[in-house]
User: Which sequence fits this backbone?
């Protein structure tokens, strides 16, 4: 069963909650929606939702890591 946190379109590298119509939706939703992101290496992004959910996005898709101690520690230790 897929959660709503990782239902994305093929080839899309942005979590659906971050997309919006203007400018591809990336910066506006990130700013207004209080999403935070980190890029630990080229092509890899960590996202944190306003509710604290952690997701990782690569060219292979988006994986929800959850809102666990492990995911939070990963977020906090990533540059």
Assistant:
């Amino acid at each position: 069963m897929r959660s709503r946190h990782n239902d994305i379109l093929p080839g899309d590298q942005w979590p659906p909650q971050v997309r919006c119509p203007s400018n591809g939706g990336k910066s506006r939703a990130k700013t207004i929606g209080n999403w935070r992101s980190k890029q630990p290496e080229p092509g890899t992004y960590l996202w944190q939702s306003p509710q604290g959910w952690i997701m990782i996005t690569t060219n292979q898709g988006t994986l929800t890591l959850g809102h666990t101690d492990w995911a939070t520690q990963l977020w906090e230790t990533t540059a």
Remarks:
- The first strand starts at residue 36 and ends at 41.
- Residues 69-77 form the longest helix (9 residues).
- The CA atoms of residues 29 and 46 lie 16 Å apart.
- The two ends are 32 Å apart (CA to CA).
